[in-house]
């Protein structure tokens, strides 16, 4: 098993293949802070690579085998293929090489306590909520996020070695490489079907993850999720539950929403009313996320008062129901939702405060997900007044021609009006300009580059 003492290691020169990724860049920044010589490669500049270069990393914007010379350790992202020049050269030269998840799992063991936030949906939001709660406390946490949080100036906060907070993605069964002292499972849904066979395969992977926890660990589980319920019995570690509908250790009752769609609720712990909690973000799903954040914070010694304050202060993370600005009196929002369950939750959250039309621009993410979840996608937009589907963002996949955005558009149109397929972003922008009215909400949705549509609209507004 790969291990590393990040304060005293024989590895001096570390190379990250795919260093610009949200998790890879955070790991690289941590190793830079610990005095390692950090190198890496990626396809293009990002805010993450620019920051790393400013802090002393050497980054190449192409993949060449020559880059691997004199490296002690190579860390690679799941996004690369095994015919990558640098990867193949590292294998040929017998350089120690590990995948990102294995490296993160080894890093996690350097901390006295660790919180890992897993689940199909809500990982970044929940991790960011916990980050907001704990970031300024004496515990001095080290935090790694799957998004950009303004209050920690990016995707990582480097602190001490008492507490480590990170996301834990299930893709390629990566969660089996993590051994946190606090393991949150927010939900279990059908996704990443380019790796998993089906929902049963996903549930079995989460079950193995829980079964790997030691007797001192705590599993924090969603009592409202039917697939999480299938993880029981759990006898190897302590379990704490959270929920709204089903009886749980940590519960939200008497939920209300203000004119902005922000929730407030009565917090109950072990059946006792504790206090009123007010959020500064939208959505019933974020009520559940906040309960998980409270549970994880409490078992790590954080007071209820600090939990309530942190949740009130939390204004959201980049690309999660992010309010980008206004155009012609309409609100422009961007959201990372790319799974049917996420889309439905985000649209419902926006509809609560929408006084005009809700216009959704959706960019499907990966051909596999679009094809295998087509029926669920077709039923996810029902609360939107106008739906625009643009071309599929391929990400790591090749287009074999067996699925197209027009297929999704037609599936939605079987039971909905006002559904359009528009390929080009410029044409989408023209459509919005011709249809937008005061008090409307326009939400760009997806894990690709669809957010650029809102940014172009707002930039045009600024130059008028």
Automatic annotation (TrEMBL):
Its EC number is 6.3.2.8. It catalyses: UDP-N-acetyl-alpha-D-muramate + L-alanine + ATP = UDP-N-acetyl-alpha-D-muramoyl-L-alanine + ADP + phosphate + H(+). It holds the Pfam family Mur_ligase_C. Its main location: cytoplasm. ATP binds at residues 119-125. Residues 14-111 form the Mur ligase N-terminal catalytic domain. Residues 117-296 form the Mur ligase central domain. It is found in: Cytoplasm. Keywords: ATP-binding, Cell cycle, Cell division, Cell shape, Cell wall biogenesis/degradation, Cytoplasm, Ligase, Nucleotide-binding, Peptidoglycan synthesis. Residues 319-448 form the Mur ligase C-terminal domain. One of its GO terms (molecular function) is UDP-N-acetylmuramate-L-alanine ligase activity. Pathway: Cell wall biogenesis; peptidoglycan biosynthesis. Cell wall formation. Belongs to the MurCDEF family. This is UDP-N-acetylmuramate--L-alanine ligase. The lineage of its organism: Bacteria, Bacillati, Bacillota, Tissierellia, Tissierellales.
């Amino acid at each position: 098993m790969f291990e590393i003492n990040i304060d005293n290691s024989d590895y001096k020169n570390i190379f990250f293949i795919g260093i610009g990724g949200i998790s890879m860049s955070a790991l690289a920044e941590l190793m830079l802070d610990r005095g390692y010589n950090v190198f890496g490669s990626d396809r293009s500049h990002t805010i993450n690579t620019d920051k790393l270069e400013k802090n002393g990393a050497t980054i190449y914007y192409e993949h060449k085998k020559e880059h691997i010379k004199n490296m002690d350790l190579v860390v690679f992202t799941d996004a690369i293929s095994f015919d990558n020049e640098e990867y193949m050269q590292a294998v040929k030269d017998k350089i120690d090489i590990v995948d990102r998840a294995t490296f993160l799992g080894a890093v996690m063991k350097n901390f006295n306590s660790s919180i890992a936030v897993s689940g199909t949906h809500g990982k970044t939001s929940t991790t960011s909520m916990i980050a907001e709660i704990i970031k300024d406390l004496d515990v001095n946490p080290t935090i790694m996020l799957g998004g950009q949080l303004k209050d920690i100036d990016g995707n990582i906060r480097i602190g001490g070695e008492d507490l480590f907070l990170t996301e834990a993605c299930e893709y390629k069964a990566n969660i089996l490489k993590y051994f946190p002292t606090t393991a949150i499972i927010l939900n279990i849904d059908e996704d990443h079907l380019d790796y998993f066979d089906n929902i049963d395969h996903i549930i079995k992977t989460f079950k193995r993850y829980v079964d790997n926890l030691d007797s001192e660990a705590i599993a924090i589980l969603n009592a409202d999720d039917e697939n999480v319920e299938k993880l029981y019995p759990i006898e190897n570690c302590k379990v704490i539950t959270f929920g709204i509908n089903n009886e749980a250790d940590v519960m939200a009752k008497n939920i209300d929403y203000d004119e902005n769609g922000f929730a407030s609720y009565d917090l109950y712990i072990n059946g006792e009313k504790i206090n009123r909690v007010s959020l500064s973000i939208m959505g019933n799903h974020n009520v559940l996320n906040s309960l998980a954040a409270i549970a994880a914070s409490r078992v790590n010694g954080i007071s209820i008062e600090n939990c309530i304050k942190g949740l009130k202060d939390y204004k959201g993370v980049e690309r999660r129901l992010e309010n980008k600005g206004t155009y012609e009196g309409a609100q422009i929002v961007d959201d990372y939702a790319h799974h049917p369950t996420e889309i439905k939750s985000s649209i419902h959250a926006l509809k609560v405060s929408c006084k005009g039309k809700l216009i959704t621009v959706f960019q499907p993410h990966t051909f596999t997900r679009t094809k295998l979840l087509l029926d669920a996608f077709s039923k996810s937009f029902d609360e939107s007044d106008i739906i625009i589907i643009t071309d599929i963002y391929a990400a790591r996949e090749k287009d074999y021609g067996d699925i197209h955005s027009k297929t999704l558009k037609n599936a939605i149109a079987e039971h909905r009006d006002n559904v359009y397929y528009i390929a080009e972003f410029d044409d989408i922008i023209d459509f919005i300009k011709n249809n937008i009215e005061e008090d409307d909400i326009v939400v760009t949705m997806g894990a690709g580059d669809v957010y650029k549509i809102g940014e172009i609209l707002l930039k045009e507004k600024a130059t008028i």
